[in-house]
Automatic annotation (TrEMBL):
Family to which the UniProt record says this protein belongs: Belongs to the peroxiredoxin family. BCP/PrxQ subfamily.
Name this protein carries in UniProt: thioredoxin-dependent peroxiredoxin
Species this chain originates from: Mucilaginibacter gotjawali
GO molecular function, one term: thioredoxin peroxidase activity
Keywords: Antioxidant, Disulfide bond, Oxidoreductase, Peroxidase, Redox-active center
Keyword check for Disulfide bond: yes
SUPFAM superfamilies in alphabetical order: Thioredoxin-like
GO biological process terms held by the UniProt record: cell redox homeostasis; cellular response to oxidative stress
The keyword Oxidoreductase is assigned to this record: yes
PANTHER family documented for this protein: SLL1159 PROTEIN (PTHR42801:SF7), THIOREDOXIN-DEPENDENT PEROXIDE REDUCTASE (PTHR42801)
A matching Pfam family: AhpC-TSA
InterPro entries registered for this protein in UniProt: AhpC/TSA, Peroxiredoxin_BCP/PrxQ, Thioredoxin-like_sf, Thioredoxin_domain
Length: 225
């Protein structure tokens, strides 16, 4: 495999991200965010609502341009990888979705499709998709109606939301409600019949994510390729 096609390592790229954040964000603000992530990691160790072997619920959600995307239509083409993320205000979500974009050719070569789901409104999803040149579906799950069937839903801490506001990030502008509810990040792989082949979350600490290599390895093993 050539260098340009090496599988990205999220944990390595996260080191640079955290160095960049430390240079950009006041120490006091960074402490609020890190304390929040630490606490979420303690509070939500096990987040998954579905396990390997379970039948995933079918759903239809609007994509970034408000077109309805049905899970069944993608399953008709083959396996589907689904990731739930917090929002494009979250730098760790941006980082990991960018990493997943870079393995999309390999995912496609294995006969699978990929989608990312958050409770953001379609306009915010479009911003996410455009900003990061994402070539997979970015779906809007208002009220986390789909996400809550797959992973745990948490309420983003007021302290973190307020601190982001001080830095010019209006958390509420990304959503159609004021609930502050977001999914605990998680990744699922479904076979063409909708059965869960792979299910993983690193828990409430949103700085931790499922590695791209884990997705590819799971696809190769479960699909015997």
């Amino acid at each position: 495999m050539s260098k340009s096609h090496e599988v990205p390592v999220y944990e390595q790229e996260k080191i640079q991200l955290q160095a960049d954040l430390a240079a950009m964000i006041p120490k006091e603000s960074l402490a609020v965010f890190n304390d929040d992530a630490d606490q979420l990691g303690l509070d939500y160790v096990s987040a998954l609502k579905l396990s390997v072997g379970d039948q995933a619920p079918l759903f239809q959600l609007p994509n970034a341009v408000n077109k309805i995307v049905a899970l069944q239509d993608l399953l008709n083409e083959g396996p589907v990888v689904i990731t739930f993320y917090r929002g494009n205000w979250c730098p760790y979500c941006n980082l990991v979705l960018n990493a997943y974009q870079r393995i999309l050719p390999e995912i496609k070569a294995l006969g699978a499709n990929f989608m990312a789901i958050s409770s953001q409104n379609p306009d915010s999803s479009l911003d996410m998709q455009t900003k990061h040149s994402l070539e997979f579906e970015v779906l809007s799950d208002s009220g986390n109606q789909v996400a809550k069937q797959f992973t745990t839903i948490i309420q983003n801490a007021v302290e973190a939301v307020d601190e982001a506001q001080k830095l010019g990030v209006d958390f509420y502008s990304f959503y159609d409600d004021q609930s502050r509810e977001v999914p605990v990040p998680a990744v699922f792989i479904l076979d063409k019949n909708g059965k869960v082949l792979f299910a993983k979350s690193e828990g409430g600490d949103y700085r931790l994510r499922v590695e791209p290599s884990e997705i590819l390895n799971a696809l190769k093993v479960t699909l015997n390729k």
